[in-house]
Amino acid sequence: GQSLEQPSEVTAVEGAIVQINCTYQTSGFYGLSWYQQHDGGAPTFLSYNALDGLEETGRFSSFLSRSDSYGYLLLQELQMKDSASYFCAVSLMDSSYKLIFGSGTRLLVRP
Amino acid sequence: EPEVTQTPSHQVTQMGQEVILRCVPISNHLYFYWYRQILGQKVEFLVSFYNNEISEKSEIFDDQFSVERPDGSNFTLKIRSTKLEDSAMYFCASSGGVNGANVLTFGAGSRLTVL
């Protein structure tokens, strides 16, 4: 089976930097994605890593180490609107391209 | 920006009744999915659909569930004989466009309440 571990909650101050870690145990790992979900909303794609290293998209960056089965999402210059749940999700080497989600990290940004 | 649309946004039904949740995926996407999320929990994979057939389904997706793509645009999830534990948010998603098959675009969800 597959398992993903991420912290359940993180609190940070507006303007700060926060890192949300994700470790995974899967067979047939293909890539790691990050999704943001505001309360009552749909998961929204943030980033995808298939290769080791850092991917940067504006204030958000994502990192993957395949050898360590580990990745993280880095959020810089935090804003109040970043308060949401963040899910890491793995893609597997199968034909369906489905995602398997972690349990999510609830980020609370304080003034 | 293209989006996945889902109807209804909220459905309340009596236990034992059948419900159909509808989705219109993004038009040039090739892969379609249903996920569910029980309140406060993670997003769980139900089923994936490609080339007019199920490509994979989870253990949750038992005989109570079925999916259909009745025409070129709609993608439906049918839940027969609903149970209390079927109460959840059901998300439709699609992928396979310019962003690639590994980037899923989710709809806003259909909240199902079973009484």
Protein described:
The complex is a heterodimer of chains A (111) and B (115). With 111 residues, chain A is mainly beta. Chain A contains no helices and 11 strands. In chain A, strands 2, 4, 5, 9, 10 and 11 form a 6-stranded mixed β-sheet that branches. Chain A has a 5-stranded antiparallel β-sheet with strand order 1-3-8-7-6, with no helix packed on it. In chain A, a hairpin with a 6-residue loop joins strand 9 and strand 10. Chain A is globular, with a radius of gyration of 13 Å. The N and C termini of chain A lie far apart (41 Å). Chain B has 115 residues and is an all-beta fold. In chain B, the strands form 2 sheets. In chain B, strands 2, 4, 5, 6, 9, 10 and 11 form a 7-stranded mixed β-sheet that branches. A 4-stranded antiparallel β-sheet of chain B has the order 1-3-8-7, with no helix packed on it. In chain B, strand 7 and strand 8 form a beta hairpin. Chain B starts with a strand and ends with a strand. The model of chain B has no long low-confidence stretch (mean pLDDT 93). Chains A and B meet through strand 4, strand 5, strand 9 and strand 10 of A and strand 5 and strand 10 of B.
Taking the sheet with the most strands of chain A, its summary is: 6 strands, mixed
Strand content of chain B: over 45%
Strand content of chain A: over 45%
Shape of chain B: globular
> Using only CA atoms, what is the Rg of chain A?
13 Å
- Protein chains sharing the most extensive interface: A-B, 26 and 24 residues
Mean of pLDDT of chain B: 93
**Unreliable stretches of chain A:** none
The helix fraction of chain B, in percent, is: under 10%
Whole-angstrom Rg of chain B:
13 Å
- Please tally the β strands of chain A and state the result: 11
